[in-house]
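User: Teach me something about this protein's shape.
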Amino acid sequence: MQKIVPHLWYDKEAGEAAELYTSLFPGSSILSRSTIGDTPSGTVELLTIELAGQRFMLMSGGPFFTFTPAISFLVACDTNEEVDRLYAGLRGGAELMPLGTYPFSERYAWIEDRFGLSWQIMRMGDIPYEQKITPTLMFVGEHCGRAEDAMKLYTGLVAGSKLGPTMRYGSDEAPDAAGTVKHGAFSLAGQSFAAMDSAYEHAFTFNEAISLMLYCDTQAELDRYWNALSAQPEAEQCGWLKDRYGVSWQIVPTAMDTMMTSGDGDAMARVTQAFLKMKKFDIAELTRAFEGA
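Assistant: First, the predicted structure itself:
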């Protein structure tokens, strides 16, 4: 099972977004679709999709959060034609970097889709890659200069993780400070991620629109991740937390997927009411709720 799953929070468009994304990436599909009632957001829709072999969870949870480029998704392409096809299919919002040729890629664009989600579409050329879509974290504002610290924290915490190559800004690349991270690769439990610092003025930072769902098999594992990552007590709710950089995580039991896609409306409602009262998830209590014990 994929250890870390990006979770995307939409207003009402999760289903529409899922249909779009799965139509653009070969070998993709919607794996599950369900609704949960009686939440603080009312009735929400949850979808799990697979894009090019990678799982994502999408939720229509109401107009509370807006996607920002602080987390974007880098799509590795083999040809200019693939870049152009994905660019045409995804574009619909702002263009952060127009489609064109750049020193690092023959064909590249950084765009927002019509839902506001940021995509970097890049012909890789001679750059090797193992994963089609790479979540990329951009550290801005008060967190600029902390990308390397974050990569070390995350890889030191999650088993089967490692740091990859890091490109650094030079002394002639102001306002970015020399030695900070221009692009850093790292893997968590075998999944590729990237991080970068940006000292330019940005009217955004990390928020709950994109969170990282970290699955845990046991309560001890869940407790360990929770204690190591949670840095803002006021953000702790329903399994969610924020780390010291403002990145949102959901620390969830692996069994939660089965509970929330069981098709048993009564059991799902019991689990929902149980977890709405929690900050950190209690696996035993959720299991009792699911079983009606």
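Now, about its shape. The domain at 71-197 is CATH 3.30.720.110 (Signal recognition particle alu RNA binding heterodimer, srp9/1). DSSP finds seven helices and 15 strands in the chain. If you'd like, I can walk through any region in more detail.
User: That's plenty for now, thanks!
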